[in-house]
TrEMBL record, chain A:
Keywords: Cell cycle, Cell division, Cell projection, Centromere, Chromosome, Cilium, Coiled coil, Cytoplasm, Cytoskeleton, GTP-binding, Kinetochore, Mitosis, Nucleotide-binding
Stretches with biased composition (Basic and acidic residues): 399-431, 440-452
Compartments in which it is found: Chromosome, Centromere, Kinetochore; Cleavage furrow; Cytoplasm, Cytoskeleton, Cilium axoneme; Cytoplasm, Cytoskeleton, Spindle
TM ranges: none
GO annotation terms (biological process): cell division
GO MF annotations in UniProt: GTP binding
PROSITE patterns on file: G_SEPTIN
Family statement: Belongs to the TRAFAC class TrmE-Era-EngA-EngB-Septin-like GTPase superfamily. Septin GTPase family.
Name the record gives this protein: Septin
Region Disordered: start-end pairs: 399-460
TrEMBL record, chain B:
Gene Ontology MF: a single term: GTP binding
Biased composition (Low complexity): 405-417
Assigned keywords, A-Z: Coiled coil, GTP-binding, Nucleotide-binding
Positions of region (Disordered): 405-431
Coiled-coil positions: 321-399
Protein name, UniProt field: Septin
Stretches assigned to the Septin-type G domain: 39-305
Bias (Basic and acidic residues): 419-431
PROSITE patterns cross-referenced by the UniProt entry: G_SEPTIN (PS51719)
Record family assignment: Belongs to the TRAFAC class TrmE-Era-EngA-EngB-Septin-like GTPase superfamily. Septin GTPase family.
Record PANTHER family: SEPTIN
Database matches in Pfam families: Septin
InterPro entries for this protein: G_SEPTIN_dom, P-loop_NTPase, Septin
Length: 460, 431
């Protein structure tokens, strides 16, 4: 298989606002990665076959695309879809939105599988019967917003599962917004709708039933619309810049003709021997695929043949990421709020680049550190108190001991004193008794002598 | 036309409509290809094998360029992974190639931990991707993918069987990366030995449950060639960056006295097959397998480890928000509980210590009470003794006083007696 390489094609580009990124040229990307060494090959290696491998795999997988059409009834939406995809998506069996008007705006989708040249495309058309048809159309965009958000949510949930499998991409990739060919300017409903949805989906505004406008009127109308779009700062789908000169020229031509004025038809008419799709009027045939009659071909080429992949990429890289980051930031914010961790609110304000899991890890680490510190402090206080108490105990022990010693000493002293006294007394007693005994002896002796004397009769 | 995956996913209730003309969406694959070409491709190869098996040479030969610097020595203390990144271009296709080499693999005496740095490296790349994927503000499509897309496992050309280090390492790696085993320096093996060697290796891998990468056979365009090649695994390769003149051409070859081994000769070695399979046919599939199988497995394990669960297996949609909130609440609750526990523990300890100290205090007081009592007793005894002594002293004193009184009386009487006698004598003397 030969390598078909056309330079250009889907490169996500800059949009100012929340989650936007500017990568036009490869050098920018290469520049941020370090350190790359350029090497020259000295022979054919074969990875130039990679694009073919990618091609093969993509065909095997198949493609899917979701297109939303929004506009008041009767603007030719179903006819345009049928003309775009050259098939009876809407028919008598499957009526278009204008035939299915409900009391309130509904959002309904139909899936069809179409095949061409070996490529299968699963096409989902989302339409909004009832849009703009009521007398009071306030909030008629809400069901549309809800639908887009619910598709984003489905994708986010599928992406966030623990067990993931090949996820179907049902997100709305492009929204064709039909403007009624009044010739004057945008209606308030148009402005309101586009303002509310330009950051959720790629909006491509179209002037419907353009065969009611002359070229000059059309030109004027387009200028007016683009001016109003700019004034209201509505961001419609932008074409990516390309390196290829030819492509750039084509892109510039398209940009000059925005918004595209289209005509659709379900009938085939013969004009100059050719069978073409067109609308038969008494004054001629407005051919759908004639570039001088309307911009249908440009729309088809752009939407299907050249920028379908880019529309999907922008949806995935810009609109979906916006939704996702807003959704996840809300979760984290709520989570933090519940915790009443006042100081940490400011840290998580800049949620850029922090994944919720990493955040929790961070919090866990912080908490562990905090607990450690608290534990240490408590430990310290505890130790100190214990020390104090033990010291006190020791002190009172010493005191009591001392007193006890003192009393003992006292007692001993008294003992000694008593001993001394007793000794003295004993001594005194002993000596006195001795004395008494001596005296007694003397007395005895004396009385004996007296007796003797008496006996002797010494008395005359 | 065979049903595509998308069609199968859509299910039965989808209308299939015929087109009445050329719409143009058959350019979708081209649009996709253009996008990827302008974005550039990236591929990461991990070469695992003992030092000296010719890993760097093979890379040079595969990519027709001189990559790295000097060959490494055998004296590395542990296994290290060195990665080098290169930008290659071939006819407007830009490839960012990263070659990771295991330095020092198989050189240590104890090789039990040899596989660990490799597994850690692979996991680290998965982790980096996972972190990026989980960020709130992320730029996935711009992320430079560093995950290893294929691991070329170099088997030493012993001719007998796989080494146990090989089996252990491959077993650890087979659920994390696409393993392509190759027999290195296969010019050391003869053809007959080679067939036996290959059979032995394959049977050993099968009996040990090692899942090596199988070239995909589900795409008709390449099914045939892939299945043929699957039968030639493991590829026996030779690398050489030297060119030898053979015939008229300069070819990559190795020159021996007994002949010249041509690298790109399919009857000499499987180099061409390896290049064909690795680069020209299945590079994209290797990348896809890494992303959809190995990475998903890692992610699933990691999330389950952190406690995330799908609330309902398939039916109800799973709300990320709820899970995050639930997880967070649970986590905070856990932390609170831990805090409480710690506090409680401290209160407990304080109580215990207080009781202890009170016990000690009580004992002390009791001790001193006892001593006091003893002391009181002693004192009383002493008092008694004293009293006894005092009584004795008193009674002695009384005795003494009484005796003295008697004595003095007696003396007086004696004196008076004496006086009387004197008087009598005197009186008598008169007579």
């Amino acid at each position: 298989m030969s390598v078909r390489v056309k330079v250009g094609g889907g490169v996500p580009r800059e949009r100012d606002g929340e989650c936007r990124f500017a990568i036009h040229r490869q050098e920018k990307r290469l520049g941020t990665v370090a350190p790359w060494q350029q090497k020259n090959l000295e022979g054919y290696v074969g990875f130039a076959n990679l694009p073919n491998q990618v091609y093969r795999k993509s065909v095997k997988r198949g493609f899917e695309f979701t297109l939303m059409v929004v506009g008041e009834s009767g603007l030719g939406k179903s006819t345009l879809i049928n003309s775009l995809f050259l098939t009876d998506l809407y028919s008598s069996e499957y009526p278009g939105p204008s035939h299915r008007i409900k009391k309130t705006v509904q959002v309904e989708q139909s899936k069809v599988l179409i095949k061409e040249g070996g490529v299968q495309l699963l096409l989902t058309i989302v339409d909004t019967p009832g849009f703009g048809d009521a007398v009071d159309n306030s909030n008629c965009w809400q069901p549309v917003i809800d639908h887009i958000d619910s598709k984003f949510e489905d994708y986010l949930n599928a992406e966030s599962r623990v067990n993931r499998r090949q996820m179907p991409d049902n997100r709305v990739h492009c929204c064709l917004y039909f403007i009624a060919p009044s010739g004057h300017g945008l209606k308030p409903l148009d402005i309101e709708f586009m303002k509310r949805l330009h950051e959720k989906v790629n909006i491509i505004p179209l002037i419907a039933k353009a065969d009611t406008l002359t070229p000059e009127e059309c030109q004027q109308f387009k200028k007016q619309i683009m001016k109003e779009i700019q004034d209201h700062k509505i961001k419609i789908y932008e074409f990516p810049e390309t390196d290829d000169e030819e492509e750039s020229k084509i892109v510039k031509k398209i940009k000059d003709r925005l918004p595209l004025a289209v005509v659709g038809s379900n009938t085939i008419i013969e004009v100059n021997g050719k069978r073409v799709r067109g609308r038969q009027y008494p004054w001629g045939v407005a051919e759908v695929e004639n570039g001088e009659h309307c911009d249908f071909t440009i729309l088809r080429n752009m939407l299907i043949r050249t920028h379908m992949q880019d529309l999907k990429d922008v949806t995935n890289n810009v609109h979906y990421e916006n939704y996702r980051s807003r959704k996840l930031a809300a979760v984290t914010y709520n989570g933090v709020d519940n915790n009443k961790n006042k100081g940490q609110l400011t840290k998580y304000d800049t949620v850029e680049g922090i994944s919720p899991l990493a955040q929790m890890e961070e919090e866990r680490r912080e908490h562990v550190a905090k607990m450690k510190k608290m534990e240490m402090e408590m430990e310290q206080v505890f130790e100190m108190k214990v020390k104090e108490k033990i010291q006190k105990l020791k002190d009172s022990e010493t005191e009591l001991q001392r007193r006890h010693e003192q009393m003992k000493k006292n007692l001993e002293a008294q003992h000694k004193e008593l001993e001394e006294k007793r000794r003295q007394y004993e001594e005194e007693k002993a000596s006195w008794e001795n004395q008494q005994r001596m005296l007694e002896q003397q007395k005895l002796d004396a009385s004996r002598t007296l007796e003797k004397n008496k006996k002797k009769g010494k008395i005359f | 036309m065979a049903a595509t995956e998308i069609a199968r996913q859509a299910g039965e209730g989808v209308r299939s409509l015929p087109l009445s003309g050329h719409v143009g969406f058959d350019s979708m694959p081209d649009q996709l290809v253009n996008k990827s070409v302008s974005h550039g491709f990236c591929f990461n190869i991990l070469c695992v094998g003992e030092t000296g098996l010719g890993k760097s040479t093979l890379m040079d030969t595969l990519f027709n360029t001189k990559f790295e610097g000097e060959p490494n020595s055998h004296s590395q203390p542990g296994v290290q992974l060195k990665s080098n990144s290169y930008e290659l271009q071939e006819s407007s296709v830009r490839l960012k190639l990263t070659v990771v080499n295991t330095v020092g693999f198989g050189d240590q005496i104890n090789k039990e931990e040899s596989y660990k740095p490799i597994v850690e490296f692979i996991d680290a790349q998965f982790e980096a991707y996972l972190q990026e994927e989980l960020k709130i503000k992320r730029t996935l499509h711009n992320y430079h993918d560093t995950r290893i897309h294929t691991c070329l496992y170099f088997i030493a050309p012993t001719g007998h069987s796989l080494k146990s280090l090989d089996l252990v390492t491959m077993k650890k790696l087979d659920s994390k990366v696409n393993i392509i085993p190759i027999i290195a320096k296969s010019d050391a093996i003869s053809k007959s030995e080679l067939t036996k060697f290959k059979i032995k290796i394959t049977s050993e891998l099968v009996s040990n449950g090692v899942q090596i990468y199988q070239f995909p056979t589900d795409d008709e365009t390449v099914a045939e060639i892939n299945s043929t090649m699957n039968a030639h695994l493991p590829f026996a390769v030779i690398g050489s960056t030297e060119e030898v003149k053979i015939g008229n051409k300069m070819m990559k070859a190795r020159q021996y006295p007994w002949g010249t081994v041509q690298v790109e000769n399919e009857s000499h070695c499987d180099f061409v097959k390896l290049r064909e399979m690795l680069i020209r046919v299945n590079m994209e599939d290797l990348r896809e397998q890494t992303h959809t199988r190995h990475y998903e497995l890692y992610r699933r394990c990691k999330l389950e480890e952190m406690g995330f669960k799908d609330t309902d297996p398939d039916s109800k949609p799973f709300s990320l928000q709820e899970t995050y909130e639930a997880k967070r609440n649970e986590f905070m609750g856990e932390l609170q509980k831990k805090e409480e526990e710690m506090r409680q523990m401290f209160v407990q300890r304080v109580k215990e210590k207080e009781a202890e100290l009170k016990e000690a205090e009580k004992e002390l007081h009791e001790k001193f009470d006892r001593l006091k009592k003893l002391h009181q007793e002693e004192k009383k005894k002493l008092e008694d003794k004293k009293k006894v002594l005092d009584d004795e002293v008193n009674s002695f004193k009384q005795r003494k006083t009484a005796a003295e009184l008697l004595q003095s009386q007696a003396q007086q009487a004696g004196g008076s007696q004496t006086l009387k006698r004197e008087k009598e004598r005197k009186n008598s003397g008169f007579l």
